[in-house]
Each structure stands twice: as C-alpha cells, then as structure tokens.
Amino acid sequence: MLLSEIITKDSIIMELKHTDKDGVIKELVKHLHSLGLINDVDEFVKKIKEREDIESTGIGEGIALPHARGDVKKISVILGISKTGIDFKSIDGKPVHLVFLVAAPLDVKKEYLQVIAKIAKMLKTKNYKNELINAKNIDDVLNIIYSFDEKFPKEMEVKTKKGRSVFKEENK
After folding, report:
1. Over the stretch 128-141, which tens digit does the pLDDT of each residue have?
2. Taking Cα atoms as reference points, which of 22, 102, 33, 99 lies closest to residue 68?
3. What is the pLDDT of residues 12-39, one digit of tens each?
4. How does residue 61 score in pLDDT terms, banded at 50, 70 and 90?
5. Do residues 103 and 75 make contact, with C-beta atoms less than 8 angstroms apart?
6. Are 143 and 132 in contact (CB under 8 A)?
7. For residue range 74-132, what is the model confidence (pLDDT) as tens digits?
8. CB 18 within 8 A of CB 101
9. Distance of CA 8 to CAs 67, 144, 145, 170, Å?
10. Which of 51, 63, 67, 109 sits most deeply, having the most CB atoms within 10 A of its CB?
C-alpha cells in the first residue's frame, strides 16, 4: 500500500487550529468524521487517548503519530501540519509540527502497522520531514508523498518480537 493511496488531498490539514495535544487530536478525529470514515467522534477520541495514556505518540523531532483501531470504515491517515508547533508532550519535549493520525478497522492489523512503518520510514529518510513542514500548499505535500512512494514502493514487513513491532522493507 502506497502512502499516496491513503493520504489524499482531503485528508491533509495545512494549518492546525489547535496548539495543544487534546485539541489537535479532537480536530483530526473530527476531520476523519467529516470524511465519513468514522461515526462517533467521542468514541474514537477516547481510543486515541487510551493509546496516548500508555505512552505519548509524540515520537520526537517534531513528529506525532497518534493511532488507534476501532469503528473505522477503512484504514485512513489524517495529516495535520503546524508551522508554530504543538505541545504534544513528546518524548524529547519539543513542539510537534507534523501529526499523522492513523485510524484502522479492528480487523486490520498488518496493514495498520505497515502504514505506521511507512510513515516512520518517510520521516527518517532524506529531508521529507522538513519538506512537509515547509510545504506551501496541499499540492506540495502530495508531491512530497508521491516522491517517497516512487523511491520506496515496497510494503513494509511487520514482525512481532517480544511484544514489540519490528519493521523492515520486504525484499520482493
């Protein structure tokens, strides 16, 4: 699955309105709802917050990857960008500029983890993170994602080792 198949023009918010973690999560989940991908905003916000209570998905370096599975119509990603930064209680304590909300149906585990792995790979590769933060418009964001998909079209293999997910590119 390519990121450009999941992150579309409709699933990108170029400037998040909120500057706090809870506000941003609710803003992204409401956007998911506005696209008809979930029925119950409050229930999905609760699922995301339950995951955040385990450990912040503010993974550092200006990135957050809140994610959950639940009553979702299909695997989805909402990308929110904040030029000013969000206090997301990240592990490095720094403001977050890119928030990728990943949502999936309960019965979709492998693809859900693959999407998270591909997003993580994109943000660790080349200058994709800075390019996304500095994108001027949605078309720029989409072009950056297309560029990543062209360079890394393979699926990410997901294996569980001692209760943790390990990601690597499949050699197909």
Report:
1. 999 999 999 999 99
2. 102
3. 999 999 999 999 999 999 999 999 999 9
4. very high
5. yes
6. no
7. 999 999 999 999 999 999 999 999 999 999 999 999 999 999 999 999 998 879 999 99
8. no
9. 18, 12, 10, 25
10. 63
Token code pair at residue 121: 């790979």
Q: With bands split at pLDDT 50, 70 and 90, how would you rate the model's confidence at 158?
A: low
Indicate the pTM of the whole model: 0.89
Burial class (CB in 10 A: 0-12, 13-18, 19+), 138: middle
Which pair of structure tokens corresponds to residue 38? Answer: 């979930």
**Could you tell me which of 15, 1, 3 has the C-alpha nearest to residue 125?**
3
Give the CATH H-level superfamily of domain 3-169: Mannitol-specific EII; Chain A (3.40.930.10)
d(CA 47, CA 135): 30
